[in-house]
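Input:
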Amino acid sequence: MKVLSRLPVLDEYADADRCAVMLGNDVLVLSEIPTALLRLLAEGLLSLADVESRLAADFGPAPQGALAGVVEQLVAAGLLEVTEVSA
Amino acid sequence: MALGRDFGYLSDETAGVLPDGTVVPYPKPLSIIETPGQPKVQADPGELFGAQPTGPFALKALIYLSRREAGPVEVEEVPLLESLALLAPQTSFLSKLDQPLHRLADLVKLCGGVHEVRYSDTAALGPVVRRLLEAQ
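Output:
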């Protein structure tokens, strides 16, 4: 089972449904879905399946592979960590 | 240089901004390219702009100047989050501050947002900057 967790940032600034995060000297502006995903993980670790179902409850079902793409980008940006754990 | 003549010169490239919006000037000599390929010439701001303004100085507008090859002056208001991403690389030691994005956002809101001004002719900047200042 894949478990998602947030990695620390220098600062995070929210504006309505979006946010900006600062890592090192870089500032990234996140759109609604990645922002919602990070907010979910502020509560603690969540499995990928849980994240998917909770995002689907707010935004509707995502196209096939869309969430994996978002997660991949957040991992690449240094905002997220994915850990494989045994169920 | 055009703006320095129209409004007064506080700095060529660096100024301190306190949390309340007070600007701390750094009126260093200007480094000017007079002959391409040759070392820059250091110019005295007093000779270029005349008497220097006296403070205190308050931040009133945040204008991001983008020079381009040709075309008329264009002014665009930058959304808040995008303005943070735009200003952060231009802000020295931002990451050393406590809650840097919040500090920057407070200044952006204090000034009524960030405007990006794209221009090719420096002579056209004065009226645009004056209008943005007067709008605050």
